[in-house]
Specification:
The protein is α+β, with helices and mostly antiparallel strands. It is about 55% helix and about 15% strand. It has twelve helices and ten strands. The strands form two sheets. The chain has an eight-stranded mixed sheet with strand order 3-9-8-7-4-5-6-10, with helices on both faces. A two-stranded antiparallel sheet has the order 1-2. The longest helix is centred in the N-terminal third of the chain and has 43 residues, at about 65-110. The chain starts with 8 loop residues before the first helix and ends with a helix.
Length: about 325
């Protein structure tokens, strides 16, 4: 009945049971509903994510939020999301019309161009690499680059470095597990290039000579192509973003430092993503790692927190100041 709110049938049953019999613990709920303990715990995680249950710190167990508040709030959010989505569709339609109408004028004015598809992007990057004179900055997101792509980039980078061009790349932390990317970073370092890693990146980005930038048309789907931007105001903002992330990123060749809680950067970012409401699948995409790796990391964190579920792990992580 409440699938539109994000609740499956078994999860709805757990919620209704908690409303009717608030004294039941996990074992009691499992027996009452004929579900396994793991099923109940998974349902509790989802209910916690949807703010339909809260942890009673004094009693040491979860309690169901009144449906007048919890379910109504979820329904209001769904309605709001639909309205926002509709406005986004209308705004996107208007933006498409504006981009299509201004495309020719934009190119003539020298403010940039639209590069449709990855082939067009690669061709333009080759041209920019050939003409770069001072600096090339980049964010590399998504999965690790293919050996063929890295092989094609190597001579371009080498020629640029020999001309005195400064090259700085920021990769995802997950790239440290890719042999081809590691070998590429080492060869770049031997030639004078610099590479760093960070758990997540906002989008793909290339900035050439602080005058030209390439950003994806659609950040979640770089295959669609890129926008080439030459507006000084936009470039200034992108440069500030790059420098901010560069400062906190970990240089290749050094181990990513753990914080005072013993958390590696990837673990800290995973906790932040899950606390912000991202699913395991969404977190895996953001970190560019497999779903299994996310689940393995989450299992390690729950064990270190001595908890039995993601919901309890979130509560304990917050109490300890991990989030």
């Amino acid at each position: 009945m409440f699938e539109v709110l994000g609740l499956s049938g078994p999860q709805e049953l757990v919620y209704r049971a908690m409303l009717q019999q608030p004294d039941l613990n996990v074992a009691g709920l499992a027996e009452h509903l004929g579900q396994s303990g793991d099923q109940v715990r998974q349902a509790l995680d989802t209910l916690a994510d949807l703010a339909l249950i809260q942890l009673d710190a004094g009693a040491g167990q979860a309690r169901a939020v009144r449906p007048q508040a919890g379910l109504s709030a979820l329904l209001a959010k769904v309605e709001s999301d639909i309205a926002i989505r509709q406005r986004q569709v209308e705004a996107t339609r208007a933006a498409i019309a504006a981009v299509a109408g201004a495309h020719d004028d934009q190119q003539r004015a020298g403010e940039g161009q639209v590069l449709e598809g990855m082939d067009a992007v690669r061709e333009r990057l080759t041209e920019l690499a050939d003409t770069a004179s001072t600096e090339c900055l980049s964010f590399s997101t998504g999965g690790a680059q293919s050996p063929d792509t890295l092989k094609a980039e190597a001579p371009l980078n080498q020629l640029a470095l020999q001309r005195g061009v400064e090259i700085r790349n920021v990769y995802l932390e997950s790239f440290r597990n890719d042999p081809a990317t590691l070998a590429h970073a080492r060869s770049m370092a031997d030639l004078g290039g610099q590479s760093r890693t960070t758990p997540t990146l906002p989008m793909r980005l290339v900035i050439i000579d602080r005058t030209t930038a390439l950003v994806p048309i659609e950040p979640d789907d770089p295959r669609r192509g890129a926008l080439e931007v030459r507006s000084s105001g936009v470039i200034a903002g992108l440069l500030a973003l790059f420098e901010m992330i560069w400062r906190i990123a970990t240089p290749f060749g050094t181990q990513a430092a753990v914080n005072e809680h013993g958390l590696a950067p990837q673990e800290r970012e995973l906790i932040r993503l899950l606390a912000a409401g991202h699913t395991d699948e969404a977190a895996a995409r953001k970190l560019a790692i497999s779903l299994r790796s996310v689940q393995r990391m989450m299992t390690s964190l729950t064990e270190r927190l001595n908890t039995a579920s993601r919901f309890q792990a979130g509560v304990h992580a917050t109490r300890r100041g991990w989030v």
